[in-house]
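Dear all,

This email documents one entry for the complex benchmark we are building for the journal club exercise. For each entry we list the sequence lines for every component of the assembly. Then comes the predicted three-dimensional structure of the complex as a token string, followed by one or two observations. Please use this as the template for your own entries, and keep the labels exactly as they appear.
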Amino acid sequence: MMKDGIRIDGRKPDELRPIKIEAGVLYRADGSCYLEWGGNKIMAAVYGPREAMPRHIQDPTKAIVNARYNMVPFSVEDRKRPGPDRRSVEISKVTSEALEGVIFTELFPRATIDVCIEVLDAEAGTRCAGITAAAVALADAGIPMRDLPVACAAGKVDGTVVLDLTSDEDKEGDADLPIAIAPRTEEILLMQMDGHMTPAEFDEAVELAIKGCREVSKLQREALMNKYKTFEVE
Amino acid sequence: MMRKIVLPGSVVGDAKEKLPGRGVFKEGDKLYASRLGIVSDKGRYVNIIPLSGVYDPNIGDNVIGVVQEAFKNAWLIDINAPYPAFLGVDNVPWRVDYGETTKYLKIGDVLIVSIVSVDEARNIDVSMKCKACRKIDEGLIIDIQPSKVPRVIGKNSSMLSVLKKYTGCWIFVGQNGRIWIKGKDEEKIKLLIKAIRKIEKEAHTTGLTERITKMLGG
């Protein structure tokens, strides 16, 4: 998988895939984002805060963050059976919890903030791409947050710790470690791991992933600034 | 003039000098923005003027609401905020007997109401006892993004007076992003809606009032 320190797709171990982010692409959603990250194509939309329904799910002290991660049938090579499955239910849950960590939910008691993440095209690292897109959509929707969350994965391929795995590296590699952070404080919002790494490799991977997150964070901010850069007040 | 746009988590000031206002939070000795917007730090507080987002109800706002539900002695009004507002029988200009609320306001009726209180738990109370408040039974309502409302009104209502002058329509802009239009000439109403959509789309540009004046034939 690795040759002279160069990866299968020609990247260096600490190099990200090309990323393109666009904010505010949907008119009817309160906030939205379209993101391309390597072969991933993700659309995220945010609705709310709005009253949580049915009423028994309301929390009188804070808002509920309800993220829904969904892969469309044509996002993978074989057709994916539509609807939530074990994997997307899990990703929805961890994404909700990661985003809840930065949103000022206590400002909107009894409300819900709905985040829809649609994976249009998938090529490894969709959960990181999904969180990154959701963060931009949340900011675009004007939701109060402590920070703009960002996610990126690191992993191990052929004994080398690498940043942002591709589909082949994910399948054939030794480990995958997606993390989400709040870049200002470097607080970890999500961390999952698949495979095996030694403690030393793990530390290296976390550091590398955080470095990746910082790069992606810059692109996120740029995307939001681009939408509003001409904004002037008389 | 250009003003600084900030994103959630951007530093907007020093906590030793200023106090956190709307859309700003304090952590350590720094002030950070909590939402996307423009910084305004005149006076003691640092505030963020939001550029997007849902309507955030404030006391004194005149808004356009739709009756959502009728109880025995109150109505629930949808005011385009995250929560419905409560309109009690004491806050209407009529004497309403218990259980006779639907004689006065039915589900689906459109009203101009003013917000009288918003508490910690985000319970919103509205009243119909204000000068502009009334039941709307003619004309049409259009929705725009609540964050674009200041632009439709303009500085000292400049934009609003342009719209009124050149179309001859009656316009009421609710703070919640609903606009009530009443006019006789159908063509003029169509033109007015087009103009409002243009304002919404180009809210972030300068010289908009002049362009709208031109568009409306001024």
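Observations: The longest helix of chain A spans residues 199-228. Residues 132 and 150 of chain A are 5 Å apart (CA to CA).
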